[in-house]
Amino acid sequence: MSSHGPACPMTAHRSDGLRGVADVPGDKSISHRALILGALSVGETVVTGLLEGQDVLDTATAMRAFGADVTRGEDGVWRVHGVGVGGFAEPGGVIDCGNSGTGVRLIMGAMATCPIVATFTGDASLNKRPMARVTDPLALFGARAVGRSGGRLPMTIVGAVEPVPVRYEVPVPSAQVKSAVLLAGLNAPGETVVIEHEATRDHTERMLAGFGARIVTEETPEGRVITLTGQPELRPERIEVPRDPSSAAFPVCAALIVPGSDVLVPNIGLNPTRAGLFYTLQEMGADLVFENLREEGGEPVADLRARYSPDMTGIAVPPGRAASMIDEYPVLSVVAAFAQGPTEMRGVKELRVKESDRIAAMADGLRAAGVTVEDGPDWWIVHGLGGDVPGGATVATRLDHRIAMSFLVMGLASARPMTVDDGGPIATSFPVFGPLMAGLGARIDG
Ligand SMILES: O=C(O)C1=C[C@@H](OP(=O)(O)O)[C@@H](O)[C@H](O)C1
Ligand SMILES: C=C(OP(=O)(O)O)C(=O)O
């Protein structure tokens, strides 16, 4: 939805040790894909553990508008009766993807090779984000896009009537762009090939294979070459959505900086394309242990145990790891403020085109809280204070859930409270953040 209610300020106060079990909700990336791929299958896809955050609910509404039957049972199980590849109906109204880059970009891809027209919009944050990165490759399939200047939403996509398969090198490290091209390739006859130079989250590839598509990924000197055979009949799936490592990051990071904490975050997927933050924290000296490491559905899963870690030191985060932790830099920068010495984060230009310019948003808030930050176009350095972070600032959320949650985590350990001017956007990805953190003993009000 393109607007939420009145701004809801939230304040986090210095807390005693956080303790207990943090059951974080389902993975946002996998939840979007479960609904979209379910809508493109013939028959009933059953989804348990779907993230019921606003971003995903907006994708569910969109799938209905394209003709799929999407329902939620009282038991919280979601069922999707799909229309099949190429079977999307033309929506009767505008598709509002709210705050969600993943939603709008993946859905644009999925409809771009159907002979229909759809108009997309979002909230004030989404309507500023770049869409040409998706509409450029979609044009190669034969789709046309007309939007606001600079390739911004609102935007109308005229789907290709006779789509052709595409070979496309993704110019930015983006799973959304890769996925949009693959989803468009589903309804193009022949082989669509996507090449990515930096590995990004691979949920689309894994799930397409699960739904019965022929898709092969080869690691080559050129990069990862992904070949999809178009026009499969996707068969419906039963999907158990794993818990979201990007949400787990918040209780984990809070436990590391709040004295006396010991928190268990069970059942977190450690898919290598997602787990970069946890390895980075371990390299900084965090007391973060992977307990009960196991395989589930072909992916590594563990219970994360995080304890207060007073001796963390800053590191230079390897730029090659950026894609595997891209959404976690805001909260990493909070941990970095409590570590000793500088933490350097480079090769992270993509942070500037998320729900907000995340380098600017975090740098402004950290500085207001007494932390020294240097930043450039694609890098930033946080100078850690080794535990004594003054805090005491009010920060603008900028319609960005991760900015809000990061500064609330900070306020649990800084000398003075931290306030965010609007906690509303947290509901896009982690609707139970407030009660979950309170259950661990966090003092957050608002
Ligand atoms: O494909 C996805 O599910 C996502 C990809 C990433 O975006 P980019 O593709 O823009 O890097 C990430 O930031 C976003 O939260 C989810
Ligand atoms: C960048 C994010 O999401 P999206 O691109 O889907 O809006 C995020 O959740 O941090």
Automatic annotation (TrEMBL):
Its EC number is 2.5.1.19. This is 3-phosphoshikimate 1-carboxyvinyltransferase. PANTHER family: AROM/DEHYDROQUINATE SYNTHASE, PENTAFUNCTIONAL AROM POLYPEPTIDE. 3-phosphoshikimate binds at K28, S29, R33, S174, Q176, D327, K354. Pathway: Metabolic intermediate biosynthesis; chorismate biosynthesis; chorismate from D-erythrose 4-phosphate and phosphoenolpyruvate: step 6/7. It is an enzyme of class 2 (transferase). The keyword Cytoplasm applies. The active site is at D327. Phosphoenolpyruvate binds at K28, G101, R129, Q176, R358, R402. Residues 17-433 form the Enolpyruvate transferase domain. GO terms for molecular function: 3-phosphoshikimate 1-carboxyvinyltransferase activity. CDD domains: EPSP_synthase. Catalyzes the transfer of the enolpyruvyl moiety of phosphoenolpyruvate (PEP) to the 5-hydroxyl of shikimate-3-phosphate (S3P) to produce enolpyruvyl shikimate-3-phosphate and inorganic phosphate. It is found in: Cytoplasm. It catalyses: 3-phosphoshikimate + phosphoenolpyruvate = 5-O-(1-carboxyvinyl)-3-phosphoshikimate + phosphate. NCBIfam families: aroA. Belongs to the EPSP synthase family. It comes from Lacimonas salitolerans.
